[in-house]
Design brief:
Pfam families: ThiS. The protein has two helices and five strands. The chain is α+β, with helices and mostly antiparallel strands.
């Protein structure tokens, strides 16, 4: 199932500058695995060493923050837009 993944500026070095890429998978976990296979290293910037979404990275499937739905098991139907958004802190 083809989905669209929006890549934040800080991670575009992994995608040769592309702000949006296509990936495949029935769940967010599968999409991220395919994304890392296509763009080596990007997965480690999104997931920590235990395989969980990093604390300061937000991921949305459609309009839903995956932390409040099924996490990495969130379904990613054909045509879904996924957004990877690094948290911004400041003061």
């Amino acid at each position: 199932m083809s989905v669209s993944v929006r890549i934040p500026t800080i991670l575009r070095t992994y995608t040769d500058g592309a702000s949006e890429v296509s990936s495949d998978g029935a769940t967010l976990r599968e999409v991220l695995q395919k994304l890392d296979a296509d763009f080596p290293g990007i997965g480690a910037r999104i997931l920590d060493e235990t395989g969980k979404i990093r604390r300061f990275v937000n991921v949305y499937v459609g309009e839903e923050d995956v932390r409040f739905v099924d996490g990495l098991d969130t379904a990613t139907p054909e045509g879904t837009n996924i957004s990877v958004i690094p948290a911004v802190a400041g003061g």
